[in-house]
Structure formats: structure tokens, C-alpha cells
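Dear support,

I submitted the protein below through the web form. The confirmation email said the job was done, but the results page showed an empty box. After a refresh the structure appeared. I'm attaching both so you can tell me whether what I see now is the final result or a partial one.
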Amino acid sequence: MMLVKLDFFSPFVSKPAFLEHGAGPLLPPPTTLLGALGAVAVRPEERFYAPRADFVLFWAPPYTEGVGLYRHYTLMTQKRTRLEKLPKAIEAVLKGREDEVVESGMTARSLIQNFLGVGSRREVYFWGPAYLLVSGGEAEKLAPYIYRVGQKEGLIAATPLRFAVEDLGAREVETRFYIPAGWASECVAVPYYGQVTAQCREEYFFDPRLGLNAERQPFYIPPPMGHIKVRPAKGYTAVKIVPEAGSDLYAILPRGYAEG
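What the results page shows now:
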């Protein structure tokens, strides 16, 4: 396993899958993190690549959620190949051929509206460093060099940390890692320290262990402040992660991964 501290220089910006605007995942899902790791492997090429991983978990510091206005097309967030398509679409519209198909079934008019249109996207501001816990040969090797998460403007600084792992067995633990729902037999959210508990929030992510073609699976998400209390399900174990710097972290992992 590899543990990496992530310092965000900007908010995490997300949108729904296959859409250009709206509220996407609250926290970087495993597929986003795998894509960020893959970007390390293929840069400076602009193509999607997801390295193999047994699992990818994200520890979220306290955060604030907001909404920002974004233009879908910018020189930083779009591929060079798309930059080459835009002048062609503008030329077609100027010549009265706005319904001409210029890319992947898109007409010149719809391509311009898509690229240059303005809409809302979710922004999540983290109050401190986050942590990435990843297991899998290639993904582990790439993790120390991760430089962005999500949009290409979402630059981060990655610091790999040496750590020790203590197996806690079936003990209930408090954590800010998001946890696949199938890994926990119980989950209770404590939104603010010392206050009443609430139902754990679920978001549906693709689980890298099941492959990208599998259906999305529910994950328990930590609240903006506080933590979630989780107890491991059968086949899983609670662990304490002791990094070389910083506070101890707690998580649930598949049995056999508690050796570090």
C-alpha cells in the first residue's frame, strides 16, 4: 500500500458523468483518482489511462461545498485536438452551415454551444491536506508523482509518507476515509464533534476492484465536519494507520492488507 498526503491549491471541481454542467461527486471518486494516477504515466499525452489498483481510498479533511460558474472550454481543461475542432465549427456557422456535423455526431452549432457555454459546477474547498491510500503495483508506483485531481486546474502537491498499520479486528472506528458500503456492517455519521448522530451519506462510485464496466457501488462519505463510525463487515478488518508525520488515521480494509 502507498499513503500520500495531498495538498490542494484550488477547490475540487466536479460535474456529473457524461454532462458538462451540474453537481458531480462530492469527493474525488476512485475513478477520478485512478485517472489522476494514469495522467502521471502518459503525460504529456492527452489520453485517459487508468492503472490497475486493488483499491483506492480518499481521506477528506473538513470541507465546504459551493457552486461556481465555469466555461466548459478553456485552454487548460481541454485537449489540443478539441482546440483544432472549434475554428472549423465557427467557420461552418459563419458560412451558414450550422447544422453540419463536425465531431462525434455534434453539429457546428451544438459544438460551439457545448465548448463556449457557461454553466454551474460543484466546488469543494478542503480546509487542510487530504490523504490517498492506494493498493496495487502500478498505482502505488505512480502515487508519489500525482499532480492534479479532477479538472486540470486542480493542481495538488503530493507527499508520500512512510507508515505503519495496526490491525484492530472487528472494532468500530471513527474515520474520514470514504468506505465502500459493502466493507462495513454498520455506519453512523457524527456531523459535528459531540453532537447527535445521523444516517451515513452514500454516493455511488465505480469500484476499481470490480472493473470500470461494473455497476456503480455505494460508498459511505464523511460529513463536512466530524466523522463516520464504521464497523467492518465479514472479510474486512479495521486498521489504524500511523504515518511518519501527522495524526493517526483509521480505516476499514480487506483482510490481508493490514500488514502495510
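Response: this is the final, complete result; the empty box was a page-load delay. DSSP finds four helices and 19 strands in the chain.
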